[in-house]
Amino acid sequence: MAMNEKPVIDSRWVISLQGKDYPTWPGILDLAHQLGLEAIDTELVQIPTQANEQTAIVKATTRLKGGRQCADYGDASPRNCSTKIATALIRLASTRAKGRALRDLCNVGQMLLEELPEEEAVAMARSSPAQPEPGAARPSGGSKTAEGGRGPAATATAGFEPLYHADGKSLHRTDLVAACLKDQQLARDYSIPVEPLDPATATNEQLFSYGRSLRPRLRAAKALRDSGKAAPQPAEVVT
């Protein structure tokens, strides 16, 4: 990066939905490191319980090497996340809190994609037009041009579009990433060796192909484990 260039959010980590650009958690974290991120501290403010409608609240404090710091809160509950991650409320609240604090720290006004309720993000993606070829990377303060005016809306990088079409279905990228993480965890649980793949940097096609090739092995491993559990135990001989 040249001395006169400002840090930018990599265009891979910005998703365009209905004409608006939403940076993602990996993008804001990368930008913060470009600016000299020194620390992120989190504090669990509220544990999800039945009394608070299963709402987790986390406070995050972020700090740059120059001493500047920002803090903010993030919440997660079954009302603002998908059922797939409803068992990871504290982790989602932590990600949202850190993302909000980093946005203030990096002077990024647009909310992160992770801050949107899952159902809203999916609905917006399904109603958004197909993504054209990617534009330039976003500057940290927005999408202003060199002359100071607003440039055209930036778009998702090819291969990282919000929706991926395969086998006659429209699959959301966030679902592809979540499925890949789940498959990798199951592979570890079943001690199945797999090819390394980083879901954050893999294209939609790579994520889809990865899952399609891995899941038959996962099903076979599950069937084998289940058959072992269901096998009758030898009767104890009492003498």
Short description:
The protein has 239 residues and is an alpha+beta fold. The protein has helices at 25-34, 89-106, 118-127, 173-189, 204-230; strands at residues 8-9, 14-17, 20-23, 37-46, 56-64, 69-76, 138-139, 163-166, 169-172. The strands form four sheets. The chain has a three-stranded antiparallel beta sheet.
Order of helices and strands: EEEHEEEHHEEEHH
Structural class: alpha+beta
Number of helices: 5
Number of strands: 9
Percentage of residues in strands: 15-25%
Strand order of the largest sheet: 4-5-6
**What gap, in angstroms, lies between the N and C termini?**
81 Å
- What form results from the Cα inertia axes? globular
Labels describing this entry:
single chain, 239 residues, alpha+beta, three-stranded antiparallel sheet, two-stranded antiparallel sheet, 5 helices, globular
Task: Explain what you see.
With 239 residues, the chain is of the alpha+beta class. Helices cover 34% and strands 20% of the residues. The protein contains five helices and nine strands; from the N terminus they run βββαβββααβββαα. The chain has helices spanning 25-34, 89-106, 118-127, 173-189, 204-230, and strands spanning 8-9, 14-17, 20-23, 37-46, 56-64, 69-76, 138-139, 163-166, 169-172. A three-stranded antiparallel beta sheet has the order 4-5-6. α1 crosses α2 and α4 (173-189) runs parallel beside α5. The longest helix is centred in the last third of the chain and has 27 residues, at 204-230. It is globular and about 55 Å long. Residues 130-155 and 230-239 have low confidence and may be disordered.
